[in-house]
Structure formats: C-alpha cells, structure tokens
C-alpha cells in the first residue's frame, strides 16, 4: 500500500510499504477513508533530524474495518469507525478515569509495528477499546466532521473541560488553528457567554465567530493582552484555552487570565520551563492544566451533535488532497495557505 | 505599644510604636491575644535587604475587639475574633467566589498604615468583612487552635481543596512544617484514605501520623520519590500538596504525582521558572494549582470542629514566647528547634 513517511524536517514522502496485517487477536485492520494533517505534525516537519529509515506519520483517521482478530467482539468488517489519536484498552483504571492517553496497555500511532494515519490502511491494536463505530456510509458527507473527533475537536473540548468552562465562565482562546477553533466550538457547547478568540488570520477568526466566538482579537503580545482586558472590564477571563504551544502564547495566557482563573494548554509546548512563580501563577491563584487530549473519552459525547448536523466541525478543512499530494499538503499548512488539510487516500 | 519590626535579614526587633487608632469608619482596633511566627516570615528573615526604617511583621493573630468605627455593624468591643492573613470586604465578586486574597478593596497586613500581628494591637481595615467572631473567652484553651485558622490550617485546607482531595484520591504532602501538617489534617478531613507525608523531622512526621497521615517518608529527592512510588504500586498519588516552596519540592512533586494528577502549591515559591513542558506537566496531563490561601473563605467551615475539640490543630505550636522574646522565636524556628512559635503579648 501507499503510506506517508517523514525522513526529517521538510522531507515528507509517499511510498510503497507492506500492507498492514493482524498481529494480535485484539487487532483490526482499517482501510482509511479520510485522514488529515495536524498542526502538531508540523513540529517534526520543522525539527526532525534526518534519518535514513524515516517514520510513518499521521494520527487522525476514519476508515472501514477490513479484518478483525479473533478476540475482537464489538466490530465487524464493513463498520465505519473513528480512530482516536491514541489507542487504548478502554478498561484500565486510567481509561476508566477518562485518561486514555495514559492507558496502561495503549500507545500512539507510528510506534514500532503500528503505522500512521496518512496511509491507505492501518493496523489498529486493541481495536475494541480504541475504535468508535459511526453509523454512516463510506461516502457520508459527515466524514470530515467525524474525522475531527480523531483529534482536533476532542482536543479543543479537552481544553475547555480541563479549564472548567461553564455558563458562568468567560473564555479566551489563544490560537486560530483548527484546535483553537474547536476550542471555541467546545466553549460554546459548554455554555460560555463570552468567548474571545485571539488570532491573526481573518478567514479563520471569521470561522471562529461562526463557531461561537463573541470577539476576535487580532493583536498579539502586550497589545493583544490590553485588548482582552478592555473587553473584560480590566480583569481578563476566567479561563484561557491555549492552542498554540509556543512561549509567546504562554505569556499571552498569563496576561489575559483573571485571578483565580485557569490556563488550559492543548498546544504541545515547544519549551521546557516557564514562569510559575509568585508574580505569574502563584500570587493570583492561577491553575495551569491540560495535556494531550484523551479524545477517546469524548467521542461518544460529541458524536450525536455531529451526526444530527447540529455542529459542523469539519468546516476546519479548507483543502483536500490525495495521498500522493500529502507532501504538498504539509507545505500548504506550513505556509499558512491552508488551515487544515484533508487527505482522501 | 510594643510591636515587632524587621530591619533586614536576621534583624528582628521589638520596639515601642504609636498605638493603632481608627482611621476609617470601617476599621476596628484589635488587642492581640495570641500571634505567631510563620514559615513564610522566615523568607524576609533570610533575604530582606537592610532598611533603616524597617517594617512591621506578622500576619496571624486572634484578639479582642477594643474599638470599632462607626460603620462596623457585626462586631462589638469585647468580641474575640480571628484575623485571616489578608483583610477583605467579603462582598466583592472575588470574595464571593472565595478568592479573598484577590479582594478588590482588601490587602495584607504590614501594608502602609496597617500594622502587623506580632504586636500588642492591630488596626484592622474592613473589620466586618475581615474578622470572624469566635464564641470563646479571652483565656480559652482553644486560642492556639483558633489561631491556626488565621493562616496555616486554612492554607493546608486550600492546598487540599484546590487539589480536589476526596475519598477516592491518594495524597502526598511535601513538607513537615506547620502548613504541611495542616495539609495532612485537611486531607484527612476530606476523606483521603492514603496520605503520605514527606518530611525529615521525626517529631513532626509523628505528629503528622496522629493528624491522619498513613505513611511518613523521610527520604528526599530520587530516594524519596522511589519510596512514594513503592507505596503507590509504582504510580504516585492523585494529588500532591506542596507546602515548602523550594525548587527541590517542586521536583519532588513532579516525581510523585500520578498521570492525570494535581500538584497543589501553598509553599510560597522561591523560584520564578520551573519545568512545565511535555515530559513534566503536559505529557501526563498534570495540573499545577494553588497560591496564597483565601483563608477567610474557610474559617466558618473549619471553625465548628475546632470549637467542638474534634481536631486540635494548635498542636503545631511547640514553643511559646512573650512579645519581647519574638527575636529568639525567629531564631528557634530558623534553626528548626521549634516547629511553630506562639506569641503571647
């Protein structure tokens, strides 16, 4: 089959690789209907040291079950399924607590022996625990929205849940990428009445306003902070959903959070240390939370509104490529020409 | 009257100063029955640059109302009262949210025009909002326990509340000072079944075991972390209550917290930056919370058990000094000869 391999920064290729096969009785093999490129895929695209062997890439896909192992009991060939970006048994104590990203027997795509989502097919370990069936046909127009449940919608929702967003909390979302926009949609779902979206790309913040943002702030740094404070009577917001991952976004979060508030990070931090002392987090009793989203925990909850068309998170996809065009898709996202690229193998 | 003035690191003196007087109609003047020396008073005792004018010091006291301003309606001369370590109106939005340390009109003892607790008397601003009446006599044997509601008991409780301690969470308390021991008592109050106390001073950890700790770990650093992991099946605890404030304690907290868990800090951080990146906080979805405790929010809740003798937090005081002996009290706490020093003016 064809699969995407990254060999180092800027070096993404689509190549022939062996077809995935069942290795464990708990495995399934899933043919990919739709995959996509994630903002976090751009980190290795920027930083990965060159390696001769390369690594498969991609961690978001919806597909059709092709084969199941003898121990798989909840799925059958032909089922359309959503794959979360981490695979998990869904039964261990961490999974029962909703922290599937720390599953005792789970793991992440592109680990040794497990392929990536930007491919024609994928071997899925722990298929019963990992995959969520979607009652749609292979050609459903809902596929792009269902695909957001693989990562970005669940990730935005995780940011909002960990921040404790509710009808009484004001919200700032930092970042107008797909996760930031999904954080807006999630804050809206949880009832927030003021949702300020900080982002520089008008087409994206316009979509954010449609998803439920009440204000868009294009300014960054001190100027952006002043704008948010102006919109909140000087106080900042109860919650800040940080969907970027760079230090500038962390500093911006400190600047716009209200005393007693929460900074919830889902942008993968590209820094090791950050200010957490008396003047920043401690004195005003700010909580710092977040992490990789256990999206598996949220799929059943978010799925009905997607199936009923009440929300259309698939609107974050503004470009579609074939598998062989994936390298061009990376370039388009890296150049900020595309918000999020859908892949149709 | 006599009051304690700090002139710089290691330089604490008791001197004659003008008696406090009512300055605002919302003020009260309170004669101090009992005050004490706080672990956090040791920070200026170590670091304060020498100043010729000095500053009053002390932020914990119980006393008797001597005089009230014309707008004070809930107190009368003769009332025995508990003073939280921050004064507050108890009516603004932050106070109503339980964040009295961020009160819009409040402040902290030893600010200009407001004295400190290690004195014969104190001018109390916003007396109706700040002071909590205790239905006891001036010579009550409960005074030491009531005094802990000024700071250390409420601070330990804040750590536990912000961490979300409940009957299903395991707890590590880092630090066997008065706040650490009060964090143990608080975790016990909230129903935690495993409470591991990390501290090196056997007399203190023994008191911690009486307060409800299930295990005491004397080792520090990697050795201490290994011990806590051994006691928790390798996982660490759901919550870590950090009552020290040094970087070593932060690192220890990272080492003993379970994935998805919470590090709740109430030790005033003596550092500006700390690890918060993927391998430390983000990857395992660790939450970092805490700050100066809004103890005013907790006094009414914690008071009944103290009055009924169900808990005896006053046992943290292991030495009593007169006001003129306060400098010796600082030395005893700094030398770790005393756990916490009670002051009887």
- Determine the oligomeric state from the structure: homodimer
Radius of gyration of chain A (CA) equals: 20 Å
Number of domains in the coordinates of chain A? 2
| Biggest pleated-sheet summary of chain A | 7 strands, mixed
Strand content of chain A: 25-35%
Looking at CATH, the homologous superfamily of the largest domain in chain A is Medium-chain alcohol dehydrogenases, catalytic domain
Report how far apart the termini of chain A are.
Answer: 10 Å
Based on CA inertia axes, which overall geometry of chain A fits? globular
What is the largest interface, and how many residues per chain? A-B, 34 and 34 residues
Helix content of chain A: 25-40%
> Given this structure, which CATH class of the largest domain in chain A is correct?
Alpha Beta
- The counted number of beta strands of chain A is 19
The number of distinct helices of chain A, counting runs of at least 4 residues, comes to 12
Looking at the overall shape, the CATH architecture of the largest domain in chain A is Alpha-Beta Complex
Mean pLDDT score of chain A, rounded? Answer: 97
GO molecular function, one term (chains A, B): zinc ion binding
InterPro entries (chains A, B): ADH-like_C, ADH-like_N, ADH_Zn_CS, GroES-like_sf, NAD(P)-bd_dom_sf
Keywords (chains A, B): Metal-binding, Oxidoreductase, Zinc
Domain Alcohol dehydrogenase-like N-terminal (chains A, B): 25-133
């Amino acid at each position: 089959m064809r699969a995407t391999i990254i060999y180092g920064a800027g070096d993404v290729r689509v190549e022939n690789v062996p077809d995935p096969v069942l290795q464990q009785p708990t495995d399934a093999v899933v043919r990919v209907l739709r995959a996509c490129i994630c903002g976090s895929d751009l980190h290795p695209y920027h930083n990965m040291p060159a390696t001769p062997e390369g690594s498969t890439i991609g961690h978001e896909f919806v597909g059709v079950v092709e084969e199941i192992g003898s121990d798989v009991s909840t799925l059958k060939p032909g089922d359309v399924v959503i794959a979360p970006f981490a695979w998990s048994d869904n039964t261990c104590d961490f999974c029962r607590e909703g922290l599937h990203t720390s599953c005792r027997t789970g793991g992440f795509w592109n680990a040794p022996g497990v392929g990536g989502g930007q491919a024609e097919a994928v071997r899925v370990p722990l298929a019963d625990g990992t995959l969520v069936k979607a009652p749609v046909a292979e050609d459903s127009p809902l596929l792009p929205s269902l695909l957001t449940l693989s990562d970005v919608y669940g990730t935005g929702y995780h940011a909002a849940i960990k921040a404790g967003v509710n009808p009484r909390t004001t919200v700032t979302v930092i970042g107008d990428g797909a996760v930031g926009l999904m954080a807006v949609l999630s804050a809206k779902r949880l009832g927030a009445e003021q949702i300020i979206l900080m982002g520089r790309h008008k087409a994206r913040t316009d979509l954010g306003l449609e998803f439920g943002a009440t204000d868009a702030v294009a300014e960054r740094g001190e100027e952006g902070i002043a704008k948010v404070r102006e919109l909140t009577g000087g106080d900042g917001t109860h919650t800040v959903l940080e969907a970027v991952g760079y230090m500038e976004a962390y500093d911006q979060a400190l600047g716009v959070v209200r005393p007693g508030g929460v900074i919830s990070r889902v942008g993968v931090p590209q820094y090791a240390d950050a200010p957490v002392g008396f003047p920043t987090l401690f004195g005003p009793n700010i909580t710092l939370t977040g992490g990789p989203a256990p999206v598996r925990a949220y799929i059943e909850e978010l799925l009905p509104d997607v199936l009923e068309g009440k929300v259309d998170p698939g609107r974050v996809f503004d470009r579609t490529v074939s598998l062989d065009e994936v390298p061009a898709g990376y370039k388009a996202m890296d150049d900020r020409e595309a918000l999020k690229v859908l892949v149709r193998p």
